[in-house]
Design brief:
By secondary structure, the chain is an all-alpha fold. The protein folds into two domains: about 180 residues, no CATH class; about 290 residues, no CATH class. Helices cover about 70% and strands about 0% of the residues. The protein is built from 20 helices and no strands. The longest helix is centred in the N-terminal third of the chain and has 36 residues. It is globular. The two termini are about 15 Å apart. About 40% of the residues are buried. About 0% of the residues have low confidence.
Amino acid sequence: MLFNSYPFILLFLPVVLAGYFWLGRRSNLTPVIWLALASLAFYAIGNWQFVALLLLSIAFNYGVGHLLIVAKLAPTRRRAALALGVAGDLLVLGIFKYAGFAADNLNAMLDTHFAVDILLPVGISFYTFTQIAFLVDAYRGQVAAYALPHYALFVTYFPHLIAGPILHHKDMIPQFQREETKHPDPHLILCGIIIFAIGLFKKTCLADGIQPLVALAFEARSPSFDQAWLGALAYTFQLYFDFSGYSDMAIGMSLMFGIFLPVNFNSPYKAASIVEFWRRWHMTLSQFLRDYLYVPLGGNRHGRVLRYVNLMITMLLGGLWHGAAWTFVVWGALHGAYLCINHVFNALVPNMPSPLARPSRIAGAVLTFLAVVVAWVFFRAERVDWALLIIRAMADPTSTVFGREEIAALVLVCVYAALVWLAPNTQAIMGYDHGNRRVGERLRVGRIRPLFLYGASLLLAFGILGIQSHSEFIYFRF
């Protein structure tokens, strides 16, 4: 079931909200169970064959976590329990996500013909990483004992289950435990509807609206210079508004339940460096890779050379997390190289004097954006050689066509660029911050309230009217 679908907006979400608050008048635990069951139903509608796998994953990780939190195990047994839990999670993820990729590469190397065709469970990367973080923190002694219903809801919570954000137990489970979240807050519901409307508009009108232009580069046999750039930029903005739209919709619908999700997207194309880009793009994944991969590898504690090695390993694995294909490996390698170059530059070049600070930031933002666009070509292309074909076209201005179609595409791309760089993001509009219950305070100002309501109503109307029969979010495939 898609967030941007009529059954979800007009039936599933209202029913689940009504049941949650109705049960909240009678008990503090029953609404948690209701929401967990509703989340499982949400998952089962499109992936019923993998519900058992999801439940087994929850039971396995909860059991291992219980051993680490409650049982008085010797240090060696605690390490063994953690290794068992993490290895079990990675084994399942590896089988479903990477078995086919491994078989294809073995076939290419050994001239064999192993056939591996395994359907990828939607959301497996997100709920696997969520639970690995839980186990590691339990081993570190940073987790309290949680009831099974709260843990099950933490893993299955439908606003994040399919495409993130990657949730952290300390942020979410205490919210599920609080009694006040079981009672409707009209202000939070209104703010949630507005944020959901903004996200829906981004997805159905902006992301889906520019999607046809992506074909200029990625579905052409031999794109020209302008077609390659326009197609690459179109995908760059499609992915931006698609992922931003999903993040807003997830935050908005969760806010209706009185639950605050972490911010996962914060105008990343405004970043003036790759380091800053990764603090703004898929923020929960960046935090996970930093805390549970880069730092355990040694981080920057063992000198610059090992720091750069750790960065490359982290980003290569981050690329593989997105998909089992060499294009994602190249994408991760590019970002790893970008980060290494960024850190070398910071180490060698002193801080800019005040008069040059703004021009240097603008130059950094332009260079960062161009580097990101080049990397997105590999992220989107079906094969590495196809990506290289587009890159070569982007580097050859002698092949420019610039016909009527290309001029119209350029105008549309410029409009999207203006929205990305000049318009405020959702957090700025709504004052949203994880854990800040004063979200949307400007709605309380009587003079401005009608403007917010009329604008949100228009966005919601355009967003609903723009719904297509089947328009998945790009991050569903990861």
